[in-house]
Design a protein that fits this description.
The complex is a heterodimer of chains A (about 575) and B (about 375).
Chain A (H helix, E strand, L loop, with lengths): L1 H27 L1 E2 L2 E2 L2 H9 L1 H32 L3 H12 L6 H12 L4 H8 L13 H26 L2 H9 L4 H12 L1 H16 L3 H6 L7 H12 L2 H21 L1 H5 L5 H15 L6 H16 L1 H27 L16 H7 L2 H34 L5 H9 L6 H12 L8 H25 L3 H9 L4 H30 L2 H6 L7 H11 L4 H35 L1
Antiparallel strand pairs in A: 1-2
Chain B lengths: L1 H16 L21 E5 L3 H19 L2 E5 L4 H9 L7 E5 L3 H6 L3 E2 L8 H5 L11 E12 L1 H4 L7 H5 L8 E4 L9 H8 L12 H11 L3 E5 L4 H7 L5 E5 H7 L7 E17 L5 H11 L2 H10 L15 H4 L6 H4 L3 E2 L2 H5 L8 H13 L4
Parallel strand pairs in B: 1-2, 6-7, 6-8, 9-10
Antiparallel strand pairs in B: 3-9, 4-9, 5-8, 5-9
Classes of the chains: A mainly alpha (about 575), B alpha/beta (about 375).
Chain lengths: ~575, ~375
């Protein structure tokens, strides 16, 4: 049974990822045609690598903490919203994922520049007397990274909080608990799995980032992925790049081992996890905290709780603004009539839309990307859901390593995976075909499916399923009629993430595309490299338009269904 | 091994440096017909560069020869190299910057050009960069000093020393990142700013270059990485001076003059066409290269985008107005220096090619370990 659930994913991962990366790691120990540690000696002796590594880790930690602080109030608010508003807000949260990373980061340079909107607002409000330096330094990198990573934090948190039975907190309050106390003892511990999975996701995905720091950072900012990418794409020093990537992998593995209990909460048994929740409760209750401190904390939370509604709304609005702000810039840019990016545009026209739709290369790339990313996301669901079931519902040897393997494509810099993939398949007819893209996209999309589904299954009330079975339902019927419908929100968000992960990919495209297989981001890559024209803003605007259409259709359909079920009742 | 490499390098330096057609070419006075069948897969560069190629080079070639051109967008150099190393090159014909061709030659990744299809008159006219055993120059362009014309007025900044002088010309700066090696000519700019005689820039004195760069570093708002970034920073008023490529600067100045520039101390650079080893359409590739080397064809290309034709005879067919905008226009050419790719490709004292040394030293300098 377990084997059946695990094998499909393992087979795909072995062929398209594990085997190629293993070959690449071996490569890092080669020099010309002999075994050698030369590349590692270079890393150890130069001092550059250690500095870059430190910078990267620091960035990842700060971004993770900032995301947690910003995302929690928002996720909490969304989980308390009526469903229609919640789904709208969740769409807004996904927005940053839907625009080209380049146009998004350009939007930040416009917003954060000395004469940009934010500085003007601060000056107008009298908060500052002269413009702040907000971009091309660490601040710019943090803001840009936080915006990109926020969705990764909001979604798991939301999933945890939405499943949480609010009645518990109300019950606690009715039994005399203050709202603050109820939050500390009940809500916060219940959302712990979401916090852990969000932090894991954000921290690890930060390590592989390079476009945002490269574009928003200052002259001294240099991240590990930049170094690896330059080695692969510019210098063609594959072995040195492989060595750096291997060191990065080893570091991440070490982090995993050290924090394995924390990371493994994701996989803990129901009883264990309630134990850990209990631990948190004990901790938050006065038992382990020195009395004065606990009292202070309690007092502070009570003060906050008296203003909590407005404060919550304010904090949530701030986070939402952070997510949405770049679009204030992107959409007008698409209608610019200038040959360069300028905000506000000197004039408006449909020039860049006309250009897009009259170009068959853009259009065929668009359809190629849409098709391959859709296929890959479906495949990722098909292999990711069973394995998430296996990980949550069964105990077996190698469970934790399996989980780490499945989420590792989010950590390993894609450039390394892609180069490994390419070398493994270069001699086969696979390169330059849609199949290669589907395989590659499936591998990078599966981690999102697994993480989202595990979070979904964890808080899933199994008693419902068991009830169905005990009432005579076949387990498969129970799966179909009880389990899957309840998991629908998780499945939907997994599908969206999986699709976008493939659709947005540039790196595999660089290596795998061919005359009849060119994805959209590769077409965009050219424009981006040679001319930052408003063309890419058009692509972003079109994304948004299709997304709005999707949301409208969904709202319409659910309204219709609702209506029908009402009729049935009558 | 390293002796072999040096010998190859020497040969290349000779071929690239002198403006004569290499003697190993047996070129008939009149070119053969280029008619053929099948296809050829070519890197098109994308954007307006790719469009210019489609209109001025590929469409006319298809019409004349019946060979289909499949234009492919960009992949980075490492990906191209990986594909050739693996024996299934991404393109039949691609473009390499001058600073990169030798690495490909060294690794035996290129197919020698068959000059049998070329016109002798065209071949003889390649200047200031000659054709090579493996390379046919495609475009010549300039890395120029660029500045804010509103703040400083036109014709204000006229040398790299002025760019470095933030007392006289206050404001932020942007230069190409050294992680691109010779691409953005940041090392040449640093030496010129420090007063090195343009004729004595090579071999590059790394210590002096980095010392000069350390002087300007506090004023650097950003090291640009892609060609559009430098001009964009000037348009956005994030910097007041820096460097940028002529094509990008002209595009930004499409309607009004947004960016001031000078040809003085510009760095002339060039890209070459090459045929990748493992190509399945070598004959068609040679026909395409021969077609694209014609003076009339290159002149037509220069009408669509502001890159200079390596075939100097093309100037006979370019209107005077247009010619005055091209980097190798006689008056501009003498104010600039030609980047010495023989130096950049050569092996340094440490046994590594200078372009790789530059990147490694740049990383060390950036993190303060130099």
């Amino acid at each position: 049974m377990i084997l059946l659930l695990v094998v499909p994913a393992l087979a795909i991962f072995a062929a398209g990822y594990l085997f190629p990366v293993a070959q690449l790691v071996l490569k890092s120990f080669r020099n010309e045609s002999t075994w050698s540690l030369q590349h590692y000696q270079e890393i150890a002796s130069s001092g550059v690598f250690a500095w870059v590594l430190f910078q990267t880790l620091l960035l990842a930690v700060v971004v993770t903490l900032a995301c947690l602080i910003l995302a929690y109030p928002l996720a909490y608010s969304i989980s308390r919203c009526p469903p229609w508003l919640a789904s709208l807000l969740l769409v807004l949260v996904t927005l940053p994922y839907l625009t080209s990373i380049l146009i998004r980061t350009y939007a930040w340079t416009v917003l954060l520049s000395p004469a940009g909107l934010i500085n003007q607002l601060l000056l107008y409000l009298g908060i500052v007397s002269e413009p702040l330096r907000l971009v091309f330094n660490k601040i710019g990198v943090y803001i840009g990274m936080i915006q990109v990573q926020l969705p990764l934090m909001v979604f798991p948190l939301y999933a945890a909080l939405a499943r949480f039975d609010r009645k518990l907190s109300i019950a606690a309050q009715s039994l005399g608990s203050s709202p603050a106390d109820a939050f500390l003892r009940i809500t916060l511990p219940s959302s712990m799995p979401g916090i852990v999975s969000g932090c894991t996701l954000v921290f690890l995905s930060c390590l592989g980032f390079y476009i945002t720091p490269a574009l928003l950072g200052g002259p001294n900012d240099y991240m590990i992925a930049q170094g690896i990418t330059i080695r692969v794409l510019t210098l063609g020093e594959f072995e040195a790049a492989a060595a750096q990537a291997t060191v990065l992998l080893a570091m991440v593995a070490t982090v995993f081992v050290i924090f394995r209990t924390k990371v493994a909460t994701e996989l803990e048994d129901e009883s264990q996890s309630s134990q850990s929740a209990k631990k948190v409760r004990d901790l938050s209750a006065t038992a382990h905290i020195p009395a004065p401190l606990a009292k202070g904390l309690q007092r502070a939370l009570e003060v906050i709780s008296s203003v909590r509604s407005p404060l919550l709304v304010l904090l949530s609005a701030f986070t939402l603004a952070l997510l949405v702000l770049p679009f204030v810039v992107v959409i007008p840019l698409a209608f610019s009539d200038a040959a360069y990016l300028s905000f506000p545009p000197p004039g408006y026209s449909l020039r860049w839309f006309t250009k897009f739709f009259s170009n068959s290369q853009w259009l065929s790339a668009l359809s190629f990307s849409g098709r391959t990313a859709l296929l890959a996301s479906l495949l990722a669901i098909m292999i990711g859901v069973p394995i998430a079931f296996a990980l949550v519902r069964f105990r077996f040897v190698g469970r934790v390593p399996l989980y780490l393997l499945l989420i590792s494509p989010m950590i390993v810099p894609h450039v390394v995976m892609a180069v490994a993939f390419f070398f493994s398949f270069a001699k086969t007819p696979l390169i330059g075909t849609a199949t290669a893209f589907v395989l590659a996209y499936t591998i990078i999309a599966t981690p999102y499916v697994v993480v989202i589904l595990i979070a979904g299954l964890k808080k899933f009330d199994r008693s419902l399923e068991q009830a169905a079975i005990s009432l005579g339902g076949h387990p498969l019927t129970a799966l179909r009629t009880v389990t899957l419908p309840l998991l629908l929100p998780s499945l939907a968000s997994a599908l969206v993430f999986a699709f976008i992960t493939g659709f947005d990919d540039v790196v595999y495209g660089l290596f795998v595309s061919g005359p009849s297989a060119t994805p959209l981001p590769i077409r965009m890559w050219d424009d981006i490299r040679l001319e930052i024209s408003p063309q890419i803003a058009v692509v972003a605007a079109l994304f948004l338009a299709s997304l709005a259409a999707l949301v409208a259709v969904k709202a319409f359909v659910s309204a219709a269904l609702h209506h029908r079920s009402h009729l049935k009742d009558i | 091994m390293s002796i072999n490499r040096r010998q190859v390098l020497k040969g290349v330096a000779g071929a690239g440096g002198a403006a004569i057609a290499p003697s190993f070419l047996a070129v008939p006075a009149l070119a053969q017909s280029l008619k053929g069948t099948g296809e050829v897969v070519v890197y098109d560069g994308g954007g307006s560069w790719g469009e210019a190629k489609r209109v001025a080079l590929f469409d006319p070639f298809e019409k004349e020869t019946g060979i289909k051109v499949i234009a492919q967008p960009r992949t980075d150099l490492g990906a191209v190299r990986a594909s050739a190393l693996a024996g299934s090159p991404r393109y039949d014909v691609t473009i390499l910057t001058g600073g990169n061709t030798t690495a490909f030659e060294r690794e035996n990744l290129l197919v020698p050009i068959d000059y049998g299809y070329f016109n002798k008159a065209d071949l003889d006219a390649f200047n200031p960069v000659a054709t090579g055993k493996f390379t046919v120059p495609h475009i010549i362009y300039s890395l120029l000093i660029a500045y804010d014309p509103v703040k400083f007025g036109s014709n204000s900044i006229s040398s790299w020393a002025d760019v470095w002088d933030t007392k006289k010309f206050p404001g932020g700066r942007t230069l190409c990142t050294g992680t691109r090696g010779p691409d953005g000519a940041v090392f040449e700019a640093a030496l010129l700013a420090d007063g090195v005689d343009p004729a004595k820039i090579y071999p590059i004195d790394w210590d002096r270059a980095f010392k000069s760069l350390s002087r300007i570093k506090p004023e650097i708002v950003k090291w640009w990485n892609s060609g559009a970034e430098g001009p964009q920073l000037l348009i956005d008023k994030q910097v007041t001076a820096g460097s940028g490529w002529n094509g990008r600067i002209y595009a930004a100045n499409e309607k009004t003059q947004k960016i001031g520039f000078t040809w003085n101390q510009g760095i002339l650079q060039y890209d070459s066409w090459v045929v990748l080893k493992g190509s399945k359409n070598v004959d068609n590739a040679n026909k395409l290269l021969a077609f694209m080397s014609r003076a009339e064809v290159q002149a037509n290309f220069s009408k669509h985008i502001l890159y200079a034709p390596p075939n100097s005879r093309a100037y006979d067919f370019i209107p005077a107005e247009r010619a005055k905008m091209l980097p190798t226009y006689a008056e501009f050419k003498k104010q600039q220096i030609v980047q010495d790719y023989a130096f950049w490709n050569a092996l340094g004292k440490n046994g590594r090619p200078n372009n790789l040394t530059a990147v490694a030293e740049w990383e060390r300098w950036l993190v303060g370990a130099r």
